[in-house]
Structure formats: structure tokens, C-alpha cells
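How it folds
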Amino acid sequence: MKMSNELLIAARKAMKNSNGSMGHKIGAAVLASSGKIYGGCSLTSIPQDYCAERVALLKAVSEGERKIESILITWEGPFGRLQGPCNLSKCSMATYKQLGIRGASLANRRKGTSC
């Protein structure tokens, strides 16, 4: 799928800006119904961390998007498998459910496969 490849490229590009803790980095990309893609990276700070998918989602919303088609999350690091969006990110997605989020995909940079 062409759009899936574009999302993966955008998520990996955003991941380069991540200051991930414990040696892992996470990036995400959001596809809005307008066709625009918004990238986001994980940002580790005290007292709160910012998940890549929340950053990307909030970038889209703050730029005026009101309908989200999909979210793709990618990562690299010593851990073999990302378990999916954290509960705070799930709550953010639920809060913005009126945006019509259809699904989230995970892709491991090291293996290049979907999980």
C-alpha cells in the first residue's frame, strides 16, 4: 500500500528526533482525511513522558484536522516487541474518537514487519 509506506517513512523520520529512554526510540505518523501526514516522536522528560502517537495526534488536531484515518507506530531498540499504545495514548485516542480513527498499526524498524 502506497499510503502505508508513506506513513512508515514519516514515522521513521520522526523517530530520529526521539530522545528515547533505555536505548529505544519510538516514532508515529497520523494520516488525516485531508491526506496530510503528521509525524511525532517519543519525548522522555520528567515528570511526564510524551508518547509518539500522542504527539502526532495532537499535532494533527492542533493544525485543524478533524478526521483521522489511521496511526502507524514504529520503534527501534533492544526490546523485541512493542506491546502497542500505552494506556494514556489509548485514552487520548478515545478522547478524540469523534475524529474517526480507524486503526493503529505497529512496525518494528529492526525487523521491518508489522506486529
Remarks:
- The chain has one domain: 2-114.
- The beta strands are 25-32, 37-41, 68-76, 104-108, 113-114.
- Residues 2-15 form the longest helix (14 residues).
- The first strand starts at residue 25 and ends at 32.
